[in-house]
Each structure stands twice: as structure tokens, then as C-alpha cells.
Amino acid sequence: MVATTRVDNLEGVRFLVVQPLTTELKPKGKQLIAVDSVSAGPGDIIYYVRGREAANLLGEKFNPADAGIIGIVDRVDI
Fold first, then answer.
1. 18 near 34, Cβ under 8 Å?
2. Of 2, 4, 35, 78, whose CB neighbour count within 10 A is largest?
3. Is 77 helix (H, G, I), strand (E, B) or coil?
4. Whole-angstrom Cα distance, residue 58 to residue 22?
5. In whole angstroms, what is the distance from residue 57 CA to residue 36 CA?
6. pLDDT digits (tens, 9 = 90+) for 43-52
């Protein structure tokens, strides 16, 4: 991802493309870009939040983050 305009308080923040999943782990809806606060990697199943909660993940609370990764799933039992 390349940005032509940057927000100062997002400098050094890592972003990942996230694909929401159903409870059966099938793709659901559109992909989104999320702030990575847990060092997730490709193929990880993660928890994410949207809205104000995502912005609260960063040190500076007034930022434009709209989605943020808050955890990596260790195991799924269905």
C-alpha cells in the first residue's frame, strides 16, 4: 500500500489486509485494511474491532484508524 498523503500519528504503524470470515471460516464480505497491534502474519486468524475502538489501539487517540487487529486466534473449535 502506498499513501500520497500521510497522517503524522500513523507514522510507523503497520497495516494489514483483513478478510472477515463466517463461523465456518469462509470469506464473508469485503476485505478491509486494519491497524496491526499484535504482529499478526499472513494466514493468521485474528480478532479485530472497528470504529472508535480501533483508533484507541494507537498511542495518539485522535487518528483516522477505522479497523484494528486486537488478537490472534490460537485454536478454533466448532
1. yes
2. 35
3. coil
4. 27
5. 9
6. 999 999 999 9
Q: What are the φ/ψ torsions at residue 55 (nearest 5 degrees)?
A: -65, -30
Architecture of domain 13-72: Beta Barrel (2.40)
Residue 7 identity (one-letter amino acid): V
Q: What is the pLDDT of residues 19-45, one digit of tens each?
A: 999 989 999 999 999 999 999 999 999
For 3-17, 32-46, 61-75, which range has the lowest pLDDT when averaged over its residues?
3-17
Instruction: Retrieve residue 7's grid coordinates.
Output: 497522517
Place of cell 470504529: 51
**DSSP alpha helix (H) spans, 1-78:** 52-55
What is the amino acid identity at position 63?
A: N
Please give the model's pTM, rounded to 2 decimal places.
0.84
